[in-house]
Amino acid sequence: MKDLKTDSRRRGFLKQAMAVLAAGGFVPLVFAARQNLVHGLRVERHKDGVHLVFDLSSAEGHKLFSLTKPARVVLDLKDTSLAQGVKLNINHVGPVSGVRYSMRANNQMRVVFDVDQSVSTRSFPRIYAGGQQFVVEVLPKHSSQPAVPVKSVNQAPLTARDLVIAIDAGHGGKDPGATGKRGTHEKDVVLQMARRLEKLLQNEMGYKPVMIREGDYFMPLRDRVDKARKEQADLFISLHADASPNNKAHGASVYVLSENGASSEAARLLAAKENAVDLIGGIRLNDKDELLASVLLDLSQRHTIDSSQTVAGDMHGELTKLGQMHSGKVEQAAFAVLKSPDVPSVLIETAFISNPADEKHLLTKDYQTSIVESILEGIKGYFSKNAPADSFIARADQREHTIREGETLSGIAIHYRVRLSQLRQVNSLSGSNVRAGQILKIPGRGI
Ligand SMILES: [Zn+2]
């Protein structure tokens, strides 16, 4: 799909170049430079501001800044121009009232957004099924005036928060974790996978990944839990690689904290092994802390274990599609790292590093990617049903899209990654006829 698109873009470029030649001219030098084409611009409501979404493969070296009198946001794009036939045109949405653009020297394209108040901006790339996008987020600056109470109690607050996903790469520093026959250290492959998962989550609207361990250093288990709680994580995912004296053991496993210690002897031994790293760090949890902790856990952990079970089940289901599971169900064990009383927590043994074939897999980009993609699907599946009410994901079904000239219902469905049938359903549409200016509700995930 993506290749076809690139191909037709290339053909468009060739046609353009040949037309210039046929007209007796020459191909201008700018065509020789790598040219990024803007294929479209859309506006999405986001929190109390907007996302200005460019269909654009690269915005490398871009500059984004604000100017005043009149207030406007300026985006300078290097080696970029509009694709043939594309016009930039937006309705007044949120603080953004209009858009202008011009080509400048050095093949630079300047896009100016008029805003009706002072705003803060940031930008980030986004990947979706149809290709790459570049997003400029424009948010109204919070005024120092006290907030005016909302008039209607039914009116939902406009701000919604991102779900915080704590990604914990197991072990680190002087604790290498398990080591494979080829000398692969668990601490290294799990950090690589953690970074891949972080990247995937950064490209998802409504999610904010937080890396518990950001490099190759030792971190006691309790510190990991504390960091997740301090970041107010909605979910804690600990990534590991398994080891067994039986080098035929293979595949991934998903663990949650057991209510009464280990649910099986194997799980108990594994928990002892993963937990033993705290002794390496010279930190011994004293008995009193453990007793106090267990009382607190009794009080508050019942609900968290239920949530952990649910999200672990979703992840196990996704990982099973890879056909690499070690166990047919979610396992329970007394991992210290899973003992957050208020953060649903899951530990994933991504494969057996002690198994030569698994060890080889663990080193490949393909395997690492498929594992973290499955975990991501598990996360999204879980939060599509269980997102806290104040989160963007829970409110995603309040998104709106104002239809512009030339847009189609199916194009909009692809853009928001929703099914065409869902889009029709929530907007009570039977056919595909839409008109410019019409406002569509965009369904959230999991509808
Ligand atoms: Zn481990």
Indicate the percent of residues in helices. 25-40%
Query: What is the third-level CATH name, the topology of the largest domain?
Result: Aminopeptidase
Order of helices and strands: HEEEEEEEEEEHEHEEHHHEEHHEHHE
Look at the structure and name the CATH superfamily of the largest domain: Zn-dependent exopeptidases
* Classification by helices and strands: alpha/beta
Mean pLDDT: 76
- Runs in which pLDDT lies below 50 for 5 or more consecutive residues are 1-15, 17-32, 143-158, 261-265, 278-300
Would you report the number of β strands?
17
- Unique bound compounds: zinc ion
CATH class designation of the largest domain:
Alpha Beta
The Rg value, from CA coordinates, equals: 26 Å
CATH architecture of the largest domain: 3-Layer(aba) Sandwich
- Major pleated sheet: 6 strands, mixed
Enumerate the strands of the largest sheet in spatial order, edge to edge or round the barrel: 11-10-12-15-13-14
Question: Distance N terminus to C terminus?
Answer: 26 Å
Structure annotation, total helices: 10
